[in-house]
Write a structure and sequence with these properties.
About 20% of the residues lie in helices and about 30% in strands. The protein contains 7 helices and 17 strands.
C-alpha cells in the first residue's frame, strides 16, 4: 500500500486516544490533531505530510563498546539499518526525519562500514532526509567532513507537530520527541512482559528507540510520567501489531 493510499484511509478518522488498527498492524492516533500511524517497528508515519519519523538509532553502539574493551556482536548497525530500509521500502515516504542520537558517539560515523554507508545513501536518495541533532551525536553531525546524505537541523515543525530530540517539561502540544527510550511493563500469562513503546496523551508523543542495541526506560519513571498532565496511553511494540495499553494496567 502506498503512502497516498494510507492518507486516504486516515482522512476522516476521528480518534485521539481511542486507537484504530491499520491494515499493516499499526495503530492510528491523533497527536495535536495530526493523524499518525504508530508502526510495529517503532517508527511513526504521518501520511498527510508523507513523513516517516524514527528516534534513537544509536548506530555503531556495538563498536563504541568494543573500543572500551566490552565486546558485543558487531551487527547492531546493519540490523538497525535493515529494519529502517524495510520501512522505507514499504511506505516510500517523501521525507524521513531521524530524531537525534542516530549515532552513538562523535566517532561513530568513521566507523561505519562501506556497506552501511551505501545503505544510508540508497535510503536517502530521492527523498528529503533530515538528521536532528541529539545529545550523543551533535558533534558527529556538525562535522562537514563526514559526508552524510541529507541535511542536519536542530528541530523542525510539520503541520501541528514540532519535532525535537529531547522532550521539554511543561505543556508542549504537538511535541514529537525521542531520547528517553520508553518501555512498558505489564503482567501477562503469569509473568511480567516488558516492551518498547510509544507514549502519548494525544497532545504530545515520545517514540521508542529504533536502534537494535538500545534499552528502555519504564514509562512509570518520573522522567517520562512527569511530562504528561493526564494519564497517557502506551502503545507497545508487538511482532505484528502495536498494542494499546491503558495507563492503569502498566507496572
Amino acid at each position: 500500500m502506498t503512502a497516498r493510499a494510507r492518507t486516504n484511509d486516515i482522512e476522516g478518522w476521528r480518534v485521539n486516544l481511542t486507537p484504530r488498527r491499520n491494515p499493516c498492524g499499526g495503530l492510528a492516533v491523533r497527536v495535536a490533531g495530526e493523524a499518525c500511524v504508530l508502526r510495529c517497528s517503532g517508527a511513526m508515519l504521518v501520511p498527510v505530510h508523507d513523513l516517516l519519523i524514527v528516534a534513537d538509532l544509536h548506530l555503531e553502539k556495538g563498536s563504541a563498546f568494543a573500543v572500551r574493551g566490552q565486546m558485543l556482536p558487531p551487527y547492531d548497525t546493519a540490523a538497525t539499518l535493515m529494519r529502517l530500509e524495510d520501512e522505507i521500502a514499504d511506505l516510500n515516504p517523501a521525507r524521513v526525519v531521524l530524531l537525534g542520537d542516530s549515532f552513538h558517539d562523535r566517532a561513530a560515523v568513521p566507523r561505519l562500514s562501506a556497506e552501511d554507508r551505501d545503505r544510508l545513501e540508497r535510503m536517502a536518495f530521492g527523498r528529503d532526509w533530515i538528521w536532528l541533532e541529539g545529545n550523543h551525536d551533535k558533534a558527529a553531525l556538525e562535522s562537514d567532513a563526514l559526508h552524510l546524505p541529507g541535511r542536519v537541523i536542530g528541530e523542525m515543525t510539520v503541520g501541528g507537530l514540532r519535532l525535537v530530540h529531547e522532550p521539554e517539561p511543561g505543556d508542549q502540544p504537538g511535541e514529537v520527541a525521542g531520547h528517553l527510550h520508553p518501555a512498558a511493563r505489564v503482567a501477562a500469562y503469569g509473568r511480567g512482559v516488558r516492551r518498547p513503546c510509544f507514549i502519548t496523551d494525544g497532545s504530545r508523543i515520545i517514540l521508542p528507540a529504533f536502534g537494535a542495541f538500545t534499552g528502555g526506560l519504564n514509562v512509570r519513571d518520573p522522567a517520562i510520567a512527569g511530562l504528561f498532565a493526564s494519564a497517557p496511553m502506551a502503545a507497545a511494540l508487538g511482532k505484528d501489531r502495536v498494542h494499546p495499553l491503558a495507563w492503569e494496567t502498566l507496572r
